[in-house]
Amino acid sequence: MASTALLALCSVGTFSGLAVEAGAGVCHATPIYAGHSWHDATFRLDVAGSTLSRYLRDLLVAACPDQRLQALPRKVITQLKKRCCYVSLDFEGDLQNPARHHPANFCLGNGCSVCLSSERFRCPEPIFQPGLLGQAEPGLATLAFQALQRVPATLRTRLANTVVVAGGSTLFPGFTERLEMELETQSRRHGYGALQPRLVAKPGRGTAVWTGGSMVASLRSFQCRWMTRAMYEECGSRLVHEVFN
Q: How far apart are CA 198 and CA 156, in angstroms?
């Protein structure tokens, strides 16, 4: 068993930092120092990729109540989301100005074509504003800042210098820029002007956890922690607790 946040950090070659994860089912902000995470400073957001796909379908149907849109498979909606959606750096401004909507037409292959306008940047916005979905919890950027607030002051700057972004839902164009902008705004607003969060966002961050896992599993120090099939067959389930505890 391993922490996904720690594996995300391992993927960029570090054991200390703030892991900001946005995947298919959930988002997390987890501060880690020397391989150990602060559970009381870890925050969770139940808005992620699957939620955004459902939201995009709702937006499309609201804009064009076509029965064929309602019948589109989830996989098609997810592909559409990945191909055309992006994070706005000025959501309210873009929403109010149609000239900044950048409409795009897509043929879905079933005789149905769809035009996306403001839906392109409205779809990912609930990660930063869950209130758009009726949820009262703060957005991911706010949770990431709150995680930094919870760690000891002596470590805060060090962790803020390595904010590792991971997960498929961080791949939207504009995501890292928006996250960095909001973290800086939160820092200034709460009197942490000297705190300048530095994001680490690798191109392969969509599979960062798997990359980190493969790196950890290849370490020589890790080899003694394997539990082989032969060991399990000989000792039974009690071995799980002996090896992993």
A: 12
Answer for the pair 48, 26: CB distance below 8 angstroms, yes or no: yes
Q: Which residue has the tokens 């000025």?
A: 90
Which three-class secondary structure state does DSSP give residue 206? Answer: helix
* Element holding 9 (H helix, E strand): helix 4-10
CA distance 140 to 226: 35
CA distance 73 to 88: 26
Q: How many CA atoms lie within 13 A of 140 on its CB side?
A: 31
Q: In this structure, which amino acid lies at residue 89?
A: L
User: What angle do the packed helices 153-160 and 140-150 form, to 10 degrees?
Assistant: 140
The alpha carbon of 173 is separated from its chain's Cα centroid by a whole number of angstroms, namely 13
Note the pLDDT tens digit of each residue in 75-126: 889 999 999 999 999 999 999 999 999 998 887 766 677 889 999 999 999 9
